Amino acid sequence: MAGPAHVNAIKISTNEIPTAAQYFVESYYLALNSHRDSITSFYMPAAEMPGGKPLPSISFNGNQIANAAAMQTMFKQQMPPSHYEVQCYDCHVVNPNYVAEGTQGWPAKTGKNMTILVAVSGYVKYGSSKEAKPRGFSESFLLVPNPAAANTRQRLKNVKEWVIQTQSFRVVV
Q1: Which position among 33, 115, 116, 142 has the lowest Cβ density within 10 Å, counted as fewest Cβ atoms?
Q2: Contact 104, 150 (CB under 8 A)
């Protein structure tokens, strides 16, 4: 049976994650649409998993993207203008007790030491033409506490509280 501290963390997290997910979804797709210079700020700092696999792990339409900078470069230099329209998203706590490496994490009472799974679906138009056909997309993210935010323990302007650790995007035909 879960102890009082675990129950309290779940209560806090159920209040926190919809707000965190909503903020993430709104700001991330705005960046893809019109602020592509800010794309790297949505990702965790480069790291490695114990087996040597690099993080963040980014898959775009089945292609592995090397890192956040490569993702930003792809959108700025290779992708036509785009318009993402999110139809729905869902979010769930994956790990309620995650502490980013190199940090002490947030105080437990904040409910911010968690990883969040965010599933998004919607439509995207590639190109600036009004005749561009909308295509369906599905995307999932695993968000982790941002080490920069956890180390400061206060909300700083332009420092995201959660960042992308794992991402998988797919255009649905």
Answers
A1: 33
A2: yes
Give start and end residues of each alpha helix (H) in the chain: 4-34, 68-73, 147-152
pLDDT in tens, 20-78: 889 999 999 999 999 999 999 999 999 888 888 889 999 999 999 999 999 999 999 99
- Nearest alpha-carbon partner for 113 in 26, 3, 6: 6
Pairing of strands 135-145, 115-126: antiparallel
Q: Report helix, strand or coil for 164.
A: strand
CA dist 24 and 80 (Å) reads: 23
Task: Using CA atoms of 120, 51, 160, 65 in order, give the dihedral in degrees to the nearest 10.
Answer: -60
Strand 135-145 with 63-65, pairing: unpaired
| Backbone phi and psi for residue 76, each to the nearest 5 degrees, phi listed first | -80, -35
Q: How many CB atoms lie within 10 A of CB 63?
A: 9
3-state secondary structure of 143: strand
CA distance 169 to 138: 6
- pTM recorded for the entire structure: 0.85
Quote the tokens at residue 97.
Answer: 């007790």
Q: Which two tokens stand for residue 86?
A: 């999110």
